[in-house]
Each structure stands twice: as C-alpha cells, then as structure tokens.
Please model this.
Amino acid sequence: MVPGASTGLVALLGDPVAHSISPAMQNAAFRTAGLDLVYLAFRVPAEELGAAVAGLRALGAVGANVTVPHKVAVLQWLDELSPEARLLGAVNTVVREKGRLVGHNTDAYGFRRALEEGLGRLPRTAVIAGAGGAARAAALELARAGAARLTVVNRTPERGQALVEEVRRHFPGCRAEALPLGVEMAEALRGAELLVNATSVGMWPHSEEPPLLDPDWLPPGLVVCDLVYNPRETALIRAARARGLPTVTGEQMLLYQGARAFELWTGQPAPVEEMRRALLEALAAWPGARERG
Ligand code: ATR
Model:
C-alpha cells in the first residue's frame, strides 16, 4: 500500500539503526495484512530520547520499537508498563492505547517462542552466558517458565552475580548460581539441558574472535541457543551442529519478538511466514552475511 494522508506510523527508536532488520520485516507484515501502516527507523541520540517519545505522542504514532541503547531509559517517558516490561525493567515495544503510551517487552516472549518451536518444550536446567539485557531477558523468562536450575557465566563475575540475585529475588524456587567464564563451565554444561549465548561473542565484525568456550565442553544432548543473529551461523552454532546437537538461532527470536510486537500494535495475528521471509532476505544482504554465506 502506498503511504497516504491517513497512513499510521510505527517508529523504531535506537542508535544505531541503519542496519536494523525490523523495517523490512514489519513493512512486509503490514503489506501482507493489508494495513495502512508504515514502519520507519529513526536514529535517536540518548539526549533526544525524551523529545522523540514526545514526538510519537504529538504525531499520534500507532506505536514504536525501542532498541539499543534506549530500552531502559525509555521507561521514564511512558505512561504505563506491561507486567513483562516491569519485570525486565526494559521496553522494546511501545503501543499507543487511548492516547497513553504503554511499554511492553516482547524479547522474552520471542526467546520463549523460539525455544518452544525448536525444542517443543522449555528446559528445566540451563547455562546462560552473559549478564547484559539479553541475558536478563533469557534468565528471567526461563525462571518464570519454571526452570529449576540456572547457571549464569559471565566475563565480569559481579554482573553475573547481580543477575543471579535478581533471579533468586523474583523466583525463589529457581536454584541460580554464577560462575566466571572458563573451564568451570564444562561441569555446569554436563548437568544442563540448554546453553544460551547471550553475550556478543561471535557477532559480526568480531565473528572470529576467541570463542566463548571449548567445543569439547558441549555434552551430548545439549541444546545450543545463540542469540547472536549476524552471522546466522555463529562459530558456536557451527560447533554444536558439527557435534550433531540441536540448535536454536538468534533470528528465530528476532522473528517472534517482531511478530508479538505486530500483534500488540494491530490486534491481529502476525503473518509469521511473510515476516520470516523478509527477515531472512534482509539478513542475507547484511554485512557479515556475505563472508560466510
Ligand atoms: P546486551 O544488553 O545486548 O546483552 P551488554 O549489556 O553490552 O549487551 O552485554 C554484553 C554481554 O556480552 C556481557 O555479558 C559481556 O560481558 P561483561 O559483563 O563482562 O562485559 C559479554 N561480552 C562482550 N564481549 C565479550 C567477550 N569478548 N568475552 C566474553 N564476554 C563478552
């Protein structure tokens, strides 16, 4: 649909946004659903975030996505938060509801759907590498879904410990512990069903930097999930596949967080297959994708 005088706006606020996949994915979804909406990416520096959110209000935008580095800072400008956004203390989706801006977080949902699709179930025991925003979403979502044991491994041990304490505070039934990055991981992995890489290790343009772990530490039967989606097949996913282990890749999480956001903005089921096609096409054109095909 060609944008016209009544076209609704969905904005992406982030910095940088130039390589974002979301415009391709969401515009394909709007087109498929025959909706008179357009999704545009705006590079917003941190000091302009408040003004950008005020702009969404003034322009009557239908909603927005919020990405790095604004997912936490944006909270202060919103009128209301969903329970998930409150739990995670981070917002990636904003929906205008009766003139109020409501913050949601669809990252945890995307992670859970990707795991359910890849595994058919959610694991009871997991090792999570990382302690940033992505790791928080993964750890809290697994604990919320009933995980009995979580191990957080992180380069900076204090950040790992802080995440573990947060998991314990919200979910006392989940046994959570922190470990430094290193050989201690091998032991934790032997007792786990799932490994999640929620660090930026393996991400283009540093794809060939030292790996997160020695592939020999991956035990038979372990499911390996990498939240990095550029490149689509990270060194970790390659190592897991070489061992015949089941894998869940980052673009699946990207797809489902986007599908959920679409549903929140439009109140309609997301055209997931069209979104997947647009996402894979956009990822294939990315810097980094060409290096490894
Ligand atoms: P996000 O919010 O996207 O998760 P982040 O908060 O910057 O991003 O977190 C990045 C994660 O990757 C952190 O856990 C970071 O470890 P530190 O807490 O020690 O910084 C981890 N990370 C980044 N580069 C790494 C590297 N080369 N080796 C190991 N861990 C790394």
About this structure: The domain at 8-105 is CATH 3.40.50.10860 (Rossmann fold). Residues 130-135, 154-156, 159, 181, 198-201 surround 2'-monophosphoadenosine-5'-diphosphate (CB under 6 Å).
